[in-house]
Each structure stands twice: as structure tokens, then as C-alpha cells.
Design brief:
11 helices; two-stranded parallel ribbon; 2 domains; 16% strand
């Protein structure tokens, strides 16, 4: 019998890639739960689902997770085997200006989907998508492992860390089959044009300057482990198909966590230069010290991806998927419009 998966935030950037990947690699039915705010865009789902012969495998249910799931929403969703909880507020600047919005979206929203999930009769796995930012900045050559200490530097990352603890608590309290993932700097097709990579593509195409966040001396650009959304979707399906919740370790931790990390660390200036090179254009840029003047923004984040590699999953080469994304964006410039 075919499985079914509920994807929260299904019209969002990463989640629509997850839905596309599941359609292409399983026979599962999919429910997309979304409130369709500025982050959710049904045009994404239309592009990846609408032309498929099996588009009826995807059902869209409208709901804002700041409210509990009532009986009508539960009935509309139907029977579910897996939940991938990706719905979240994720804009760091906005979280600094309006922190309570992120407490409601990320903490309360997660509590509501967990409360729904704990009452399901046939739930195989619940996967919560968290962020590298819960660990805070990574000085020097540090790469954080899954269970390292947290050090949130803005309300967004704090709300994601708070939601993580709820996921852990629901596993400990209700014996739910929960998994937590951390990923960072995801890119790909149909990303919002305010994000760094599509912003760079648009600015290079239009001969505009790119502002590169750097250190106080403006001699070193910030760096990240970039990863394509298709790789994130691949990692999720791997976790759903291959792993069961781990046995408690010597400290008693039961809820397993996995870092989904890009293949290599890239500084943002090198990234911008690569984009300009692929486009055959001149790069106009300036390094600015944004991090010292605006608390909550960090120069370097880094995660250790060994755990996922040790269980059998590894990401694609970043520059290969980045080049594909650049060329796709040039052919689909409408996605550069805000």
C-alpha cells in the first residue's frame, strides 16, 4: 500500500523541491499544508506538479499553523505516514524587528503540528527542519556536530532552537518517531530574489554592484556551506527510507539529529565571482562590515556533515549544481522579479 506524506510549508522554496523529489522517486501521495503568505508561492508547485500526469497525487490544504489543526483540517489531510515540517518564518532581519512573529510561527506553529502528529495512528516518522544558525557563528575552523551546544544570535535562530526542544520533548514524552535536521544556505530554482544567489545573478545581469558582507577590516568575506535544495530533498528521502529513531546514547538522548551539509565551504566573494564567470559578465562588488554594525548577523556558519556521510548519504558537487541553477535562472528570469 502506498505511503502518504504531509509537507508543511509545501509552497515554500525548499518544500516544493521536496515535493518534486518525492513525486519523482516514490509512489507516495503528498499533502501540502501552507498558509500561502509571502514565502509560499503556488506558482512553484504549479511548475513542478501541474504538468505531471500524476499531479492528482498532490493535495493542497490551506492552514496557518499558528492555530491548532481543527477536525475539518485533519479530515482534509487524511491518513498520513510521514511528516516533513518545513513551514517556518526564516527572515533574520524581520526576526530582529518583530521577534514575536517568529515565536508564533516557529515555536507555536511547531507545537501545533506536533500536537496533531502525536495523535496519528500510523505515523512512521516526523522530520523537523532546523537550521545551522542555532549553533551561532563558527570561529576559525570549527564545524559544529549535531549535538554541540547552541548559541542563537538572533530571534529567528532562537525560535528554531526552541522548536527543536519541543520536538525532542514530544519524542521523550509521547514516544514519537522524531528526527531533527540542520541545514544551511540552501539554493536552487525558484528561490526568492532577495536571497544571496538569485540576488547576485540579477545584479550581475543588470551590471549592478553586489555588497559582500565581510570582517571589520573588509579583507575577508563571510563563508557558508551552500547546498542545492534537491540535495536537501534527497537527504530527507534517505532519512525516511533508511533510518529508524536511534537508541539512546550514554547521555540518554533519543531524538536523532542529522546535519545536511553542502560538499564544501565557499566564501561569498568567490561565489559571486563564479556567478559572474558563468554569466560572462564583470563583477562589481564592495566588501562591507555589516556584522559589527547589525547584531544578529554572523560572518561564518559551519556544520560537520560526517554523520550523514557515515550512514550512506552525500551531497552533490556545489559548483555543478550552482552552474545549473545560474543557467536555469537566466532562462527563467521571471523568478528574479520580487
Amino acid at each position: 500500500m502506498s505511503k502518504s506524506i504531509l509537507v508543511t510549508g509545501g509552497a515554500g522554496f525548499i518544500a516544493h523541491h521536496v515535493i518534486e523529489h518525492i513525486l519523482e522517486n516514490t509512489d507516495w501521495t503528498i499533502v501540502s499544508l501552507d498558509r500561502l503568505d509571502f514565502s509560499g508561492n503556488l506558482n512553484r508547485l504549479q511548475e513542478v506538479v501541474g504538468s505531471r500526469k500524476d499531479s492528482n497525487r498532490v493535495k493542497i490544504v490551506h492552514h496557518d499553523l499558528k492555530a491548532p489543526l481543527n477536525s475539518q483540517i485533519v479530515s482534509a489531510i487524511g491518513s498520513i505516514n510521514y511528516i516533513a515540517h518545513l513551514a517556518a518564518g526564516s527572515h533574520v532581519d524581520r526576526s530582529i524587528d518583530y521577534p514575536m512573529e517568529f515565536v508564533m510561527d516557529n515555536v507555536v506553529g511547531t507545537a501545533n503540528i506536533l500536537e496533531y502528529a502525536k495523535n496519528l495512528n500510523h505515523l512512521d516518522k516526523f522530520v523537523y527542519f532546523s537550521t545551522d544558525e542555532v549553533f551561532g557563528p563558527a570561529p576559525g575552523d570549527i564545524k559544529y556536530k549535531e549535538n554541540d551546544r547552541y548559541n542563537s544570535t538572533n530571534p529567528y535562530s532562537a525560535s528554531k532552537a526552541g522548536a527543536e526542544e519541543l520536538v525532542v520533548a514530544f519524542e521523550n514524552t509521547y514516544q514519537m518517531p522524531n528526527i531533527i535536521t540542520h541545514t544551511m544556505n540552501v539554493f536552487g530554482e525558484r528561490q526568492h530574489p532577495e536571497k544571496f544567489i538569485p540576488m547576485c545573478i540579477g545584479n550581475v545581469l543588470n551590471n549592478k554592484k553586489i555588497w559582500i558582507h565581510g570582517n571589520k577590516e573588509k579583507t575577508k568575506a563571510g563563508s557558508r556551506h551552500y547546498i542545492h535544495a534537491k540535495d536537501v530533498a534527497s537527504a530527507l528521502l534517505f532519512l525516511l527510507n533508511n533510518l529508524t529513531p536511534s537508541i539512546p546514547d550514554e547521555t540518554g538522548i533519543k531524538c536523532p539529529k542529522y546535519n545536511i551539509v553542502g560538499a564544501e565551504e565557499i566564501d561569498n566573494l568567490s561565489l559571486a565571482k563564479f556567478i559572474a564567470e558563468v554569466l560572462g559578465k564583470e563583477l562589481k562588488y564592495e566588501i562591507i562590515d555589516f556584522h559589527s554594525s547589525r547584531p544578529g548577523h554572523d560572518l561564518r556558519y559551519a556544520l560537520d556533515g560526517d554523520k550523514m556521510m557515515n550512514v550512506g548519504w552525500s551531497p552533490s558537487k556545489v559548483y555543478d549544481t550552482l552552474e545549473q541553477t545560474i543557467k536555469w535562472t537566466v532562462d527563467n528570469k521571471r523568478w528574479l522579479q520580487s
